[in-house]
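Example 3.2
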Amino acid sequence: MISAIDNMTALLSLALDAAGMRQQAIAHNIANANTPGYRRASVSFESRMVQMTADLPRGAAPSLTDLSTLRPVLELADAAEPVQLDREMTELSETVLHQQALLKALNKQFELIGMAINEGKR
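Structure, written as tokens:
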């Protein structure tokens, strides 16, 4: 049970790191929208997480060792492309909502840990 909580907490923390990195990338994209030759930045995390879990045996949860190799990665577009402000603002809104959901889930994890420490007493 404890290792499952540790794994979930680690995964939520990584996802929050990715969301924070994604917000920074979007801010840079918006700030450089009119910079000639600017290469749009994005963050790769969720697709890498899906690939990692697909590589696990059926029904197995990722271990802390598996999660230690999973990190959000900043990626730059192959070529300069115009930054589309409406696209960036949409991605920013989605990222904020995603981050709020992750924070709620992490708070629930901490509540579970607190209940375990206090033997179920509030």
